[in-house]
Amino acid sequence: MRDLDSQPKPHSDTLLEWYDQHARDLPWRISPADRAQGVWPDPYRIWLSEVMLQQTTVAAVKDYFHRFTTRWPTVADLAAAEDADVMGEWAGLGYYARARNLLKCARVVAQDHGGVFPDTYDGLIKLPGIGPYTAAAISAIAFDRKETVLDGNVERVMARLYDIHTPLPVAKPELKEKAADLTPTGRPGDHAQAVMDLGATICTPRNPACGICPWRTPCAARLAGTATELPKKTPKKPKPTRLGFIYLARNEAGDWLLEQRPDKGLLGGMLGWPGSDWNEDPADRPPFDADWQELGAEVRHTFTHFHLILRVKLAQLPTGYHPQGSEQIIARHDFRPSDLPTVMRKAFDLWKGR
DNA sequence: GATTCGTGGTA
DNA sequence: TTACCAAGAAT
């Protein structure tokens, strides 16, 4: 008769042995072999990667990470960049407050810390855009401090390892406690990356590969057969659908009328087309009087908490039009669709293929 | 504690 | 097609 007390306890050593053999090769990562030789990661690159990876997949981040580090190799370079250049380079990655806070943080580090990142959790968490997870991740990975990271991967691994059925986010403190108990004194940075790699490649949300998991023996959910149900989460609210108008206008030379969106709120600080509010019944009020023609197709886009359907209208921009407020005229050859957030780029793509 | 804040991949 | 999910932070 097997009971829970006869279950072996999970140990970090088992996981680290697995990590030494299976660690993913990531652009910002120092391999466990190199790390063992005394090679340290660049805190700037760890910070940048961690911010980009917030709620974002590794696959989506890779190209952005390469472009950012090529264009701005150090935190001082980034701190000296123009706001619009950074926002444009971030365009398409989403959660644009990250880009605004990234720049704020770079400038604080450059100006108040001599271009050197704080090497402790308490120092890091004071910085813009660095919360509990990212402060723990940077201090563990970049400085090998004994901090415990708690991201979606770790939550899932711990919920399964200990068969915890309390739904998130209520279960968070309990999961953090379990994760902390497993954090070793030696190689805490590799351990943090190992748990996250395990969650990303073995202990996945659907179809976890329990048969090849280094922690299969001590896993309580595997024993109970509940792995795929965990972690439990409180149900999400349904997404409403909002409507809106956007207005594409260019003059005879091919220059476009765009606007800088306000710093706060949705797509804050990003470039976009002039448009209406987004709600159930938006008013169709173009930025100037003209013969506005509606394009046949609509832009459909889904944000975190609502669906959006945009009707796109087109008109010729009068020669000599003076941009008002946040509007700006961008010369034909200065306009890069890649500077636009995806929903705005979809409207441009619609025009291009009209 | 609940809400806001993007996007692309996947089943 | 829809819903879920991803190395969360700020308010």
UniProtKB/TrEMBL annotation:
Signal peptide: none annotated. SUPFAM superfamilies: DNA-glycosylase, Nudix. It comes from Phaeobacter italicus. CDD domains: ENDO3c, NUDIX_DNA_Glycosylase_C-MutY. NCBIfam families: mutY (TIGR01084). Belongs to the Nth/MutY family. It comes from the Bacteria. Its EC number is 3.2.2.31. The keyword DNA damage applies. The keyword DNA repair applies. This is Adenine DNA glycosylase. Binds 1 [4Fe-4S] cluster. Adenine glycosylase active on G-A mispairs. MutY also corrects error-prone DNA synthesis past GO lesions which are due to the oxidatively damaged form of guanine: 7,8-dihydro-8-oxoguanine (8-oxo-dGTP). PANTHER family: ADENINE DNA GLYCOSYLASE (PTHR42944). It catalyses: Hydrolyzes free adenine bases from 7,8-dihydro-8-oxoguanine:adenine mismatched double-stranded DNA, leaving an apurinic site.
